[in-house]
Amino acid sequence: MTSPRRAPSGAAVFKPQVTDAITTAAVDALAEHGYAKLSMEGVAKRAGVGKSALYRRWPSKVEMVTDVLAHLSVPAGPAPDTGSLRGDIRAMLDAVADWLTDPRMRAILPSLVAEYDRNPALAEASANHISGPRRAWAREALDRAERRGDLTPEVSELLLDLLVAPTYWRVVHGREVDGRYLDLLADALTRGVTG
After folding, report:
1. Where in the chain is the domain with CATH 1.10.357.10?
2. pLDDT, tens only, 84-97
């Protein structure tokens, strides 16, 4: 008599503590060495796991990096809804500043962006998993502004770029991003897109 076959259990169950260790190791390695010098083997060693633990979660370095960074890059809560365009812009600028001034992201982003020309797959994955979701998050607030008549769709699309670019430029050049700067930027952007 044969014993009954056990039903397949489906997809592998990932232990959250292992995923957390890998994520931390990947972010730390990216911040220290940049994308070009990052290796799956190095991340596994740093996390204290075998390479197979990484490859079960992500089939490639590109996918691991963009997934890990997406968790650091996309705000967790809903888009701001202050009731005014200026208030929403200022709140979104806070979220951008929090992201770009995080010491890990300050170290990681320049090396990541530098790789885009050499690695189109990384550029595309970053657009899909990091930039795209951040823009979709902000888009919620801008859609409300359009419905209120505060913005046209064309200006709203431009504003998505303007919410990030000035702060990114300032951070890359080591200049301070404080509340006064964000207030001035929010005022300028609001006047610029509604004037």
Report:
1. 71-194
2. 999 999 999 999 99
